[in-house]
From TrEMBL:
InterPro entries linked: ABC_Transporter_SBP, ABC_transptr_periplasmic_BD
Similarity field: Belongs to the bacterial solute-binding protein 8 family.
Protein name: Iron complex transport system substrate-binding protein
Signal peptide (UniProt feature, chain positions): 1-19
Any Pfam family: Peripla_BP_2
Entry keyword Signal: yes
Domain Fe/B12 periplasmic-binding, residue spans: 58-338
Organism: Micromonospora saelicesensis
PROSITE patterns: FE_B12_PBP (PS50983), PROKAR_LIPOPROTEIN (PS51257)
Amino acid sequence: MFTAMKTVFIKAGLCLVLAAAGCSDGGATEPAAQSHLATPVHLTNCGLPVSVTAPPQRAIALEQNATEIMLSLGLADRMVGTSYQTDPVLPDLRPAYEKVPVLAKLYPSREAVRAAAPDFVYSTYTSAYSPDAAGSRADLATLGVPAYLSEFACEKPADATQTVTFDGIFDEIRDIAGVFGVPERADKLIRDQQSRLDAARGAAPTTASSAGPSLLWYYSGTSTPYVAGHGGVPDAISSLLGARNTFTDASQKWPAGNWEEIAKRNPEVIVLADLTRGGDGDSAQSKIDFLRRNPVTSKLDAVVAGRFVTVPGSSMDPSIRSVQAAELVGANLHGTAR
């Protein structure tokens, strides 16, 4: 981390000379004049207007997925706060993350948000804008602070995008980049993400059956397992890889399942969310231990054969990490198809 400082100073000097060529630190910073020349942005986001007259300079991201999108767009220097870290920060983003103040272990209070004097607030989850967290987006708007919420988690379900797609995630990235006047960074990030998705699709095995291998996406819980239903990231990844989400017929994105029904469906592969919060059935290893000792689940074909794939829990939510889940599952499907 510290060995890179000299390179940054040298590059900053070069950028003064090469500013006309658009020199930047890997997309992390841009000449201030270019940012301030950006035109005003007006969005309708989850049914509410979000307008910025100039690129924000004091943004807060209220949880990790939003934070990592901003960091991936090289916006650490425009952030005055982050919160709710659920996983170790992606290694390539950690140096930038460490420059951003952490306002709270979970969500910051309304008072903490206002004390940071933000000019933009961003979150992936509706819960971030509850009265006991940052406060509603409408309340922030009365203070002159525009607030963005992922279209997959709108306050009113009717306003939300019902089915998660990677194109939808890319649209969110474009929105945030547009707000900050750096659309070319979104283009670069999306090209990289799409290239990785294409490689993941190619890594997955082809099958004689059009249905593909069946996947149980096991998120949390042991007495009551929560699994992936229809319309979420697991569905999008299953479709991408030519596989079948075992519970895609469920109407909810994360329904409460039961082991008897899971045993009837007998998935060929079990994808395990590795959660760091420490609850019952949260870590991937605790899930495996339970599946092997439980009389019902120990007889599942996937358990007997040890066909487990572990992915970070946050990658099952719409984020830049979702590509990582597609890569991990795609790479591990070799030999699982009938």
